[in-house]
Every structure is written in structure tokens, then in C-alpha cells.
Amino acid sequence: MKVTFLGTGTAVDTQKAQSCVLVEDSARILIDIGCGAFRRLGDVGVRVEEIDAVLITHNHLDHNADLLPLLKARWLENAGKLEIYGPPGTKAFVESLLEAFPYLRQKLSFEVNEESSFEVCGMKVETIPTFHSIVSRAYVIDGALVVSGDTRAFPELFSIECDALIHELSLPSGQSDFHTTPENMKECLDKAKAERIFYTHMYPHAYAVKDDILAFLGFGEIAEDLMSFSI
Ligand SMILES: [Zn+2]
Ligand SMILES: [Zn+2]
């Protein structure tokens, strides 16, 4: 399984693409597709019609903004069926996009599912509810890769024995809301069973002190756009 960060930024970044992870194995899957992720497909040489599924962690704009451009491009390229997965509300979200652009329905092939476990081309996917300001879920891909989406760090994700955990680390020390802080992360790191941990979705004021954060945590790597690894 090859994993590539297409976007590691947040809603305020203009230098990075917003949240998107490309997983390539028996299927090509995008986990989230924030603004700028569509453009990054060209950077890694993946054509729009080669994506089998998009898995949305939650329906904030920095995680789903480029879904509509992807659908429009696939409409033009006569692509096959795109499977879209997401938490409750995702069907209504996609319907609202197509209400604004009804002509896309004519030949667009897609299916939206809100199930909590499913398979994409033989790859098993499980979901775990996370702690965010709206309904949100983490994804576990083939038992090997865990992607947190937006959430406060909580022990369940860290207790999974996996090859890699991609976890958000939005905020610097001392701030607290529905995102992860270094202190919040460190509490969970003690129980971490993942072989590698990648931190992503850092707001610029957190990214600016990333070396201090890494020193504090003592484990893990900071994800950058277009970084990739194999598991
Ligand atoms: Zn969010
Ligand atoms: Zn976000």
C-alpha cells in the first residue's frame, strides 16, 4: 500500500493544499479532498478517472471543497462510477452540490454511502467516530492505516495496532477546542501501537513551532504535501 499526502494544510493555508491523503493498493482512494487536492493529482500523475473512491471524514470545507471539481472533471472524462463515503449528512451534501449544477446528473456516475464499514475493490474500511465540532469519523484501511480526520486525540485510535497513523495536530500548546494540541497528543502517545505516526493539518501558528512540538512529543513525523511512504 502506497500512501501520499496530497494536502496537509488547513482552511487558512495558501501555501499547502487542504486535507487529502491518496491511498494506492488494489484501489485508488482519496481520504478527504480539500481545496487544492484536485490540483495535486497532477503532481503525482494520477488521472481523475483513476480514482475509485473518496472517503470524507467530515463535511467541513477544508475536507470536501474539491469534490465538486473532481465530479465535474470525471463528467467531462466519461469516467466510471465514483464511490463516495462519508458520515451522515454526506448524501445531503452531495445532493446540494448537484442542485446547484443539475446538468452534471446527466452522465455522472457516483454512489454516496454513509455506512460505517465497507469494502472498496477488496480493501476493507472501518470507521471510528471522532470528537470534532460536527459529526466526523476516522478511517481504518485494511487494518494497516489509520487516518484521524479532525478530532481531539483520544485513546481508541492510538490503541489500534497498525503500520501508520495519520493524525491531525492542528493547534500549538495551550489552545483547546475540537482539535488536537501537543499536550492532548502526548497523553495518547503513551498508548500508541502504530509503528509510525504522521502529524498533519497543522494551523500556521502550530506549524511555525513544529520543531518545538516534535521535541516535546519525542515521537512522530510531520507530514508535508507530496510526501509518501509505503506499508
Ligand atoms: Zn473540521
Ligand atoms: Zn479541518
From TrEMBL:
<dbReference type="GO" id="GO:0042781">
    <property type="term" value="F:3'-tRNA processing endoribonuclease activity"/>
</dbReference>
<feature type="domain" description="Metallo-beta-lactamase">
    <location>
        <begin position="17"/>
        <end position="201"/>
    </location>
</feature>
<dbReference type="InterPro" id="IPR036866">
    <property type="entry name" value="RibonucZ/Hydroxyglut_hydro"/>
</dbReference>
<dbReference type="Pfam" id="PF23023">
    <property type="entry name" value="Anti-Pycsar_Apyc1"/>
</dbReference>
<dbReference type="InterPro" id="IPR001279">
    <property type="entry name" value="Metallo-B-lactamas"/>
</dbReference>
<protein>
    <submittedName>
        <fullName>Beta-lactamase domain protein</fullName>
    </submittedName>
</protein>
